[in-house]
Amino acid sequence: MKKICCLFVILFVITTMGIAGAAEKKIIIKTPDKIIQTEDNANLIDGKIKIPLNLVKDYLYQNMAIDNPNKQVLINFSMPKIKFNNDKTNNLIFNGFKIMYPLEKINNNDYLNIDRLGLLLGISIEENEDNIIITTNRNSYYNPVKLNYSATNDLAKIVMVWQPILTESAATEKLPALNILSPSWFSIVSADGMIANKADYQYSVMAKENKYKLWPLITNSFDPDLTHKFLNDKNARKNIIKQLVVYAGLYEVDGINFDFENIYESDRELLNQFMLEATKALHDINVKVSIDVTAPMDDSQWSKCYDRKTLGKIVDYVMLMAYDEHWRTSPVSGSVASLPWVENGVVNTLKDVPNEKLVLGLPFYMREWQEQTVAGKIKVKAKTVAMHEIDTIIKDKKLKPLWLEDKGQDYVQYQQDGAIYKIWIENEKSLDKKINLVEKYNLAGVAAWRKGFEKPEVWQLLEEKLNSKVPEETTTCIKKPKKKNKKSTML
User: What CATH number was assigned to the domain covering residues 158-364+430-466?
Assistant: First the structure.
C-alpha cells in the first residue's frame, strides 16, 4: 500500500469515527540485521491490530494465498514454529500444516488480524505512541514457542448455548447457569479437509474472564458429497485434525463440538473412524469432544447416519438436537419440540448413549405457521420466531394462549388476510417441562439453540432447575511475557 496522502487520512478518520477505538499507526519491521520503516499503516480497532496482507507477504511470510470463495487466506506452514507439551501432538504437526485465516476488507485493502497469527509467523509486536513494531525471528522451527495447553472442564451440569452470530456479546455477558459457549467458528469447506476459520481470540479472552468454557462448533457444511469425500480420504481426515489441534492451542478452547449433519448412511462407519481419530488427538491436549445427533428415526441422511452406540463410547458428550419436530419446510404445521416427542427422543437415544454423556438440546425459538387454502388444498409456510418476539405478537394480535397439556406448550392462532396463523409457543413454561427431563433421566445437562433468541428469564430458570456451577480454574495456553515499560504483546 502506497504512502497515504493527507486527503486520504482525513477521509479515513471520517469513515472510522463511528468505530470505537479506531486508529492507524505506521508499521516498522525489525529483522536480525536491519530496521525497515514501511509505508504501510496498521489499523487498530478495539485493541485488535490489523495489518495489510501485502505487508505480511512482503516482509513476514510468503507461503500464503487468498481463498476468494471463503474470504480467507490459506497459509502453509511447512516448518512449524510452535510446539505442544505433548509428544503425540508434536509428531502430528511435525511435517507441517495448513490453516485458513479470516481476511477483512478495510478501505478496499485486505487486512489480517495479527493477534495469535503472530505465534505461527514467529514474530512479536510492540506498540508505542506512533508505531507498531514487528520483530521477526522471535521463534523458529529450531526454537518454537510452546502452547502450554491446560484446559479444564469440570462442570456440574452442562448449560451450553450455540452462538452462530459472530459477535462478542455472549462472551461479555455474565449470565446465570450458563457455563459453556459454542460459537460457530469452523466449517470444513473442501474435499482435502480445509477448515474455514472465523475464530476470534478476543472472544476467547472475554469468555474466560466470565468463567465460561469455550467449545467452538465445527460443521461439515451440511454437504453429504463433500462429507463423503473427506471421510473417505485418510489424508483429509488428518488435515482436519491437525487444524483443530492448532486452533485449539491458538484460541485456548476447552472443547470442540462437531455439528455434522446431512450425511450419507453409507458413510456411517467412516464417521465413527474420523471421530475416533479426532477425539484421540484432542484428548491429548485435554480438549473435550462432543457431537450433535438427531433422535433415532427412519431417515437415512439425517438420523440413520449416526451410530449412536459407537459414538457414545468415543466422545465425551452427545448433544441430542431435540427440536425441529416440524422443520421449517414441513408440509404440515406443528410444534418445534412438543414434550412427548422430546421425551421419546431422549428415551430412544438412551438405548445407545449413556445418560451421563447425553445433553438435551433445547429450542429458544418456535415457528409461526401460515395455512392458506389454494385450489382445495392447504398450503403451509413457516417463519422462525424467537422466544423474545412471541410476547409482542400476542400483544399486537390480542391473543390469549391456550395451554395444551398433551404438548406441554401454550398455543395461539389467529386469522389475517384469508390465512390462518398457528404458533406452538416455546416459553418458560414449556422449557421448564423439558428441563425436568434432565433430572428425570439424570442427563449431563442442556444445550440451547441459539444465543440471541431467548428471553432473559430463561437463564434464571436454568439456574434454579440445574444450579449450574462454574469452576474457578482458568485455561492458559501461552506463557505471557513480563510487562515492559513499552506496551508489548507477544503474539
Answer: 3.20.20.80
